[in-house]
Structure prediction request, 952 residues.
Amino acid sequence: MSESQIKLYYKNATAELIGTEHGITPAQLKALAEETSPLISQLNNERKDGKTPYRDLPYSKEISQKVKGLVAELKDRCENLVVLGIGGSALGNIALQTALNPYMHNLDDTQHSSPRLFVFDNIDPVQFGLFLDWVSDRLDKTIFNVISKSGQTTETLSQFMIIRQLLLDKLGPEGLQNHVIITTDLTQGPLCKIAADAALRCLEVPQGVGGRFSVLSAVGLFGAAMCGVDIDSLLAGARDMDSRVSCEDFYKNPAAVNAAINYHFYNRGKKISVMMSYSFRLKDLADWYRQLWAESLGKAKDLTGDEVHIGPTPIKALGATDQHSQVQLYLEGPNDKLFTFLQVNNFDKKLKIGPAPDSAPELAFLAGKDLGTLLNNEKKATEYALLHCKRPCLTVVFDEVNAYTVGQFIYLYEVTTSFAGALFKIDTYNQPAVKFVREAIPALEGKSGCDEMGRKCEELAQQIQSLTKIDGDFLV
Amino acid sequence: MSESQIKLYYKNATAELIGTEHGITPAQLKALAEETSPLISQLNNERKDGKTPYRDLPYSKEISQKVKGLVAELKDRCENLVVLGIGGSALGNIALQTALNPYMHNLDDTQHSSPRLFVFDNIDPVQFGLFLDWVSDRLDKTIFNVISKSGQTTETLSQFMIIRQLLLDKLGPEGLQNHVIITTDLTQGPLCKIAADAALRCLEVPQGVGGRFSVLSAVGLFGAAMCGVDIDSLLAGARDMDSRVSCEDFYKNPAAVNAAINYHFYNRGKKISVMMSYSFRLKDLADWYRQLWAESLGKAKDLTGDEVHIGPTPIKALGATDQHSQVQLYLEGPNDKLFTFLQVNNFDKKLKIGPAPDSAPELAFLAGKDLGTLLNNEKKATEYALLHCKRPCLTVVFDEVNAYTVGQFIYLYEVTTSFAGALFKIDTYNQPAVKFVREAIPALEGKSGCDEMGRKCEELAQQIQSLTKIDGDFLV
Prediction:
């Protein structure tokens, strides 16, 4: 493969750099290799047995052909693509957009022929309402992509029920058909039934692929392709990484090494995992990672059913910005964090700092310098300071940011998550507690009835209302 | 005062709700009151002695008149206001914009006569370069507000040196004078000299007010006023809160209670502080808080010089969005977090969910419901689940979001931070480690010379380069 590969660099997490109290010693690394190595073949076997279908997404010609066909059909009449989704249905779309489309994409439509992209992953009435005011006059050039794996996500369905009525009112049943794409599990759920009944265009969330592992399915590919991202290259990058993260030699497997190091530090009191991108384009990949890591690894019970309450807390940060916000804490606060930098060696744009004004000769050291070099020097300065304070650092190095390297990154972190889950001996792919919240909503929204379920709902709603009621006591 | 006041609600952090292992017992609250009460008069005295000048910003007629005068002068010829700043020079501006201007402000200029606002708090060459391409054709209608308290922030000065050259090239020396506003300490620093030499318009960062406490000075007020925010009401809200947070009765002082509760939980292993806004408009106030809290409280040494390495790690989160990203971890992971919800009782916009399609009668419970009520029910459901899992929760309640309540919030958290610093017995107002990073940059950018300082720079640069060099070992 001649195209560039992203690399994981972990020397600055070792005892050689930060001492034996906080860094990984050679003996510890060896023990990690021994603990993790059997998991490589275990994961490879689980994949062969069809237990982790997300692993095969980059190979699906069917998905990319379906997506491309739909893009070809819709692109010319779409100036605004609006994604309605939440969690895994939104974060991948946002990350791909920030990484692979120009910064001014939405504001400056003279520079490209792709639609603007809006992703609504919330139900704030003010935010969504003000957007509706704007889009109502532009419905004929707008496509809504409604994404929900289960087909019954309350937030997304609520948005859809608003948009559906708007389209019916303004454009009639044909408007609904022409301006809505449904992405869901095609075998079950209300959204699937609605789509069939109204003859809406559909894309599939493949069976067995959870939301947070779905960005390389139609969930992420459709929006990306609509906005001009080279999805073939994205998938090729993921396949490139697949060959590396399937490698049975621990020391050559970046996902195994990455997971093992994260596992090691979590077990030694560094329960916070900061991903700090020194690239604006990569910043929302850190947000995508935040869900992947938190929802996959934050679990009350291990696989034997014992209560363990484990899970690193992921934090997204942005360099150089957060040097003036978080780095004071990172350097001097508790030594309870593992840092992962995202670094770009070659930025797409060169920008030269102008000359120093005569009145400020002390700025001459900046004059004529390259802004990207300065940004990378800021990363070095921060890393140096962290090492000085004995805080472990990893770096994921991108030679450049493009669809191919972003595809690698996504696949690397998905498989890293699988390894981490196996090391922690938990179920990586479920999210039992989210369901717990989800079930409370219908009760609070007044889903009732005289059957047993209706009565249970009413009881639950009363209980919640009394617990969360804000009254005079303890109000200051 | 007839206008509404924000309130802090803390019952759901007490043992009554979540048990004695994780909640505050009445005895503990009493002890906290005893420990914190003397600090109220201590802080009030420090203020009288001029040690915390940020406390008096809301009373300065001079600042608001200067700001309003400048706005009146510039507003008609400004379609784009570009803030160049980082950390405390940016986060307040961003927070005020998100809270108090419409969501589509920048994209939809048919709805208002205020300028678009862009805040650049980074030096990413791709992001900034693409913006420059766009703004270069619009310089005659653009104002750049360059904000740096020290007048020598590397990132901001680098941006300014690029913009300065662009303006000189395109519009000449008059262009510089007409399109740049400098906000800085007027007594020192390169920016102040540059401004004097080139006769640029200036605003002041008041003496003794650190960046993260400066949003209610010209730093935040100018951008807000330019974009149409009612700064009188913002300041009036802050004054309203001032009367409450100066109150010597602990139980009636929301800043004292807030700080004491945060202090309590930090000392009992809940070292992560999550601020989760259930309002899009308030989300960037959580980001502003993230700097205020981290930089003020993350300290290696206490006031006696002992090494303590303390500091809660603040996290910003957004409801309902993060229910599908972080809440699984929050509920089932380690019980190491204190949650602070931001809740809005009355949203500015009502949005009704449409009818359920015939094919999906199971959605009928949502039909016709109000989206804001649903969002608040999502908060209740999440809080209920957290309480069930014995996780402590606070809520800051806004009757509505407007300049008056936002002013209260800012002042509440500034003073809460002062109380927390006093409880932790640290210097709340310095940031020694940030300076450590800052000094490494000139070295890496090749500031050198044959004097002692030049040699030191070269030595430091070599040391950093060798530590942070990414080579073959440990690269996978």
Summary: Residues 55-229 of chain A form a domain with the Rossmann fold fold (CATH 3.40.50.10490). Residues 57 and 216 of chain A are 6 Å apart (CA to CA). Chain A has two domains: 7-49+237-424, 55-229.
